[in-house]
């Protein structure tokens, strides 16, 4: 797939592209919507049939998506999802981003990749017409993160659907490198982190390189910037919010986790890759991206909390040690079967309403400050046994008293002379 | 399966040097040519025998990218052994050893046994770091040294087991306080039959399902 793939279909209405250029994407949206409204107005097709068409795009129109999910057939979508697809198309027609955002939060998100391809750029307020020139390969290869990006992309086979032909995948990996480098070069303050490429792959698979670039660029600024700092220290602070949320809901569980010393590192990859590094099911990843795109940037922390809370009973049965709990939690998400994501998403949203991110962030900062003060107090206490510290202290005390003495003497002398 | 001791290890070193592959070769006896990268920490476990005693190795594999260092550091503290890995085909990974070593020494307990590993010894034609250089570095810093290949499994068993032997010797000499779990050593639960951990899948060696 080195070149743009453009596949016209029997209905000739839709252009699907794995490497859409901007015009193609725009026309794709327009024609999709036009086709829909034509059918609607003429009454030639009832809603169900139209929906069927919409949903069948995934299998009939698009090489890539056939590759990605050859199992997908129209019948796999429930009535509810088909109805939702219609609502999404309605919003697209009206350019109603506000309601689109709401639909991203409710069951099934944006339903399928064909719709995601049109909705995500709208959510990201991306002007896909404004193309930006690709940096040339020489310029890219000089970038300090280039070697790392190439190494990581070459190791990212797991994320590409196995049904993709090798040459197709290789071309996509090349596009992925370009996509990441373009965002990094456009935003010199951003540091590449391992896992960022997982997020980029998802956008690339669904949107194609050009639209993916614009969306990833926006999302990096709005949602991922904290992960793109030089170190992960701020990210570690953010992760500390998770046990705070868990404690609000289930104190016993929070105590257990604290006692096990499991910390937060087990969910680091969930948070910084929006779960895309660990989930095997491509459809679930898409669904979660729908949620994260339309939600507060802290939503992944709340979803993580809802997963932990959902598994409370099982966790409390474990041996209370780091390895056991770490192992259980990482495997739970990797195997995924036991997680009812729609329910967990609802739960995460209500947690976010109950415990607003800003409050949690403040609480975390407060806790950290208190901990640091305690550490400081503790070390101050032990310092009385530290000769070097005492010498330093007494020296400074000596210096201060000497200075005070000089000032006082000078004042008295001045007073005496004036007299 | 009961054990006499549990030793905690960490594997550290630059990204892409083969840390996860070494672990996979040791725990599962297999090699994955394209291994996905590690974000945060992952771990594996395997039982070995030293001096007729069952010893469980619990090995924490850390992310190599520098950005993660502030997060993975907290795992150094509770480790009895560390495998510090570089890639013999990438000079820069050897050059960074000093930083890794300083970091490890600063954040771990002072008795931690460190094994220096030059990995990918099967790629002789692409070698950038001579074996003698690795040996010299190890000598200078008081480390054990070995070249390994996670691909061919050469020296992989030895690397993990020799580290364990060194720790075991230190226990015998009384250097390690085995009652303090912060040293990365735990006495086995054989005397406490109520402790029913997660079931071990397979026998002897296991990763994933076996765990902890």
UniProtKB/TrEMBL annotation, chain A:
The chain crosses the membrane at residues 397-416. Pfam families: RabGAP-TBC. It comes from the Eukaryota. GO terms for cellular component: endoplasmic reticulum membrane. The keyword NAD does not apply. Gene3D superfamilies: 1.10.8.1310, Ypt/Rab-GAP domain of gyp1p, domain 3. GO terms for molecular function: GTPase activator activity. The keyword Membrane applies. One of its GO terms (biological process) is endoplasmic reticulum to Golgi vesicle-mediated transport. Residues 110-296 form the Rab-GAP TBC domain. Keywords: GTPase activation, Membrane, Transmembrane, Transmembrane helix. This is TBC1 domain family member 20-like protein. It comes from Dinothrombium tinctorium.
TrEMBL record, chain B:
Residues 186-212 are annotated as: Disordered. It is a lipid-anchor. It is found in: Endomembrane system; Golgi apparatus. SUPFAM superfamilies: P-loop containing nucleoside triphosphate hydrolases (SSF52540). Its main location: membrane. Pfam families: Ras. Residues 191-200 have a biased composition (Polar residues). One of its GO terms (biological process) is vesicle-mediated transport. It comes from the Eukaryota. NCBIfam families: small_GTP (TIGR00231). Belongs to the small GTPase superfamily. Rab family. This is Ras-related protein Rab-2A-like protein. It comes from Dinothrombium tinctorium. The lineage of its organism: Eukaryota, Metazoa, Ecdysozoa, Arthropoda, Chelicerata.
